């Protein structure tokens, strides 16, 4: 039972990242009909927004500390963060420690601007081109963005810690009446899962309960008819591309304490996220979220030592095996619209 609970929690953690990236991918495909292979790069850019803000907040300068001496009796030079001078040592250090949550606010305008520039500058020219052309150009864009990040931040992972308040693990054993310290799970991973659920709910609420969202949903169902009503649906779809970029970026921001950002992290998630989108159903937002969590849990259980001992390497291919089975039996995916990918 302990192992089942832990693997379920691990699956929900992985599934949160899959679902958020797949949600953005589905928004773009459902509104614009574009297969965006640069979407993983947006996840990476969000992560490096957190890295950038942490470096900005940690900027320091040398001062002479008369109260500290070296072995010759000379005053020591010490680095003092500007935040300590501006806000005081306690508040200044607290701001530095909470750089990852603060990066949410920092990254939102950046990700919206990146998404808008990407759609207006490149993607719009490929709306009526074959999907193969869209894949090639967006994959090329992803490589370019990846190399830019590598140039400025280097090739090595950059540790980005969570706030000290979320260090340690939560004792699930006590919560369910089991022995203490038998089921421990990191606090930040629970925070990430809660953040993902809030963000997913916000996207669905925006589409369901706002006039803008209702027009977008109508445009996804019948773009031509909405255009005939005098509504500039293209402009609204551009906004949705920026929102999808923002969702991917925020997913990357909050994932940095779990997986230290590196220049290829976007590619690592991209292929899996496309599998999630296809399994859930191309163009189906609920399907993308459902498939993200289901495949995350399935991958987690396939990673158990007992399973790997029986079928070595199954954890590396289980998601793809499930995708093959679903596409053979239900080509449109779990919740895909009838006729999509079934021709």
From TrEMBL:
Pfam family, one: BPD_transp_2
Topology within the bilayer: Multi-pass membrane protein
Cell compartment(s), UniProt: Cell membrane
Family, similarity comment: Belongs to the binding-protein-dependent transport system permease family. LivHM subfamily.
Main location: membrane
UniProt record, GO biological process: amino acid transport
The protein, known as: Branched-chain amino acid ABC transporter permease
Keywords: Amino-acid transport, Cell membrane, Membrane, Transmembrane, Transmembrane helix, Transport
Record field: transmembrane: 16-35, 42-61, 95-114, 190-216, 237-258, 270-298, 310-329
Protein origin, superkingdom: Bacteria
Gene Ontology molecular function terms on file: transmembrane transporter activity
A cellular component term, taken from the record's GO annotations: plasma membrane
């Amino acid at each position: 039972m302990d192992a089942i609970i832990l693997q379920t929690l691990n699956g929900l953690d992985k599934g949160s990242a899959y679902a958020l990236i797949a949600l953005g991918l589905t928004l773009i495909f459902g509104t614009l009909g574009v297969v965006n292979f640069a979407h993983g790069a947006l996840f990476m850019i969000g992560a490096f927004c957190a890295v950038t803000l942490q470096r900005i907040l940690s900027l320091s300068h040398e001062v002479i500390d008369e109260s500290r001496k070296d072995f010759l009796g000379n005053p020591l030079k010490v680095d003092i963060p500007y935040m300590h001078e501006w806000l005081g040592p306690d508040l200044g250090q607290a701001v530095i420690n909470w750089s990852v949550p603060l990066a949410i606010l920092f990254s939102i305008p950046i990700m919206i601007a990146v998404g808008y520039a990407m759609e207006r500058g490149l993607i719009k020219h490929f709306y009526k081109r074959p999907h193969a052309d869209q894949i090639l150009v967006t994959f090329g864009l992803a490589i370019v963005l990846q190399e830019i990040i590598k140039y400025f931040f280097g090739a090595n992972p950059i540790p980005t810690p969570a706030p000290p308040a979320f260090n340690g693990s939560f004792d699930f054993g006590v919560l369910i009446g089991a022995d203490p310290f038998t089921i421990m799970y990191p606090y930040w991973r629970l925070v990430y899962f809660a953040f993902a659920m809030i963000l997913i709910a916000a996207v669905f609420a925006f589409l369901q309960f706002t006039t803008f969202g209702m027009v977008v949903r109508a445009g996804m169902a019948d773009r031509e008819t909405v255009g005939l009503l005098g509504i500039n649906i293209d402009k609204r779809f551009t906004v949705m591309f920026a929102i999808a970029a923002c969702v991917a970026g925020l997913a990357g921001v909050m994932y940095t304490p779990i997986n230290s950002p590196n220049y290829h992290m976007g590619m690592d998630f991209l292929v899996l996220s496309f599998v999630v989108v296809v399994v859930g159903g191309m163009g189906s937002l609920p399907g993308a979220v459902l498939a993200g969590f289901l495949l995350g849990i399935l991958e987690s259980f396939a990673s158990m030592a007992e399973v790997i001992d029986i079928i070595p390497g199954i954890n590396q291919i289980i998601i793809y095996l499930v995708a093959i089975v679903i596409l053979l039996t239900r080509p449109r995916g779990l919740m895909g619209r009838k006729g999509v990918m079934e021709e």
